[in-house]
Amino acid sequence: MNEHDRLVGRAARDAKTVLFIGGLDAGKSTLARATAAYALHVGRAVAYLDADVSQKTVGPPATVGMKHIRSVDDLTFDRLAEADHLGFVGSTSPADHLLPLVGALARLRDRARAEGADLVIVDTGGVVGGISGQLVKYYKVDALEPDLIVGLQRGEELEPVLGVIERFFGIDTVTLPIHPGVEPTSVEDRMAQRERQMSRYFAQELHRFRVKPTVFMPSLPPLFDLKELDRLMVGLSDGSGGFTGVGHLEYVPEDGGLRLISPVAEPPKALRLGSVRLEANYRAKRVDLRNLFGTE
Question: Could you tell me the domains of the chain?
Answer without folding.
Answer: 3-197 (3.40.50.300), 204-293 (2.40.30)
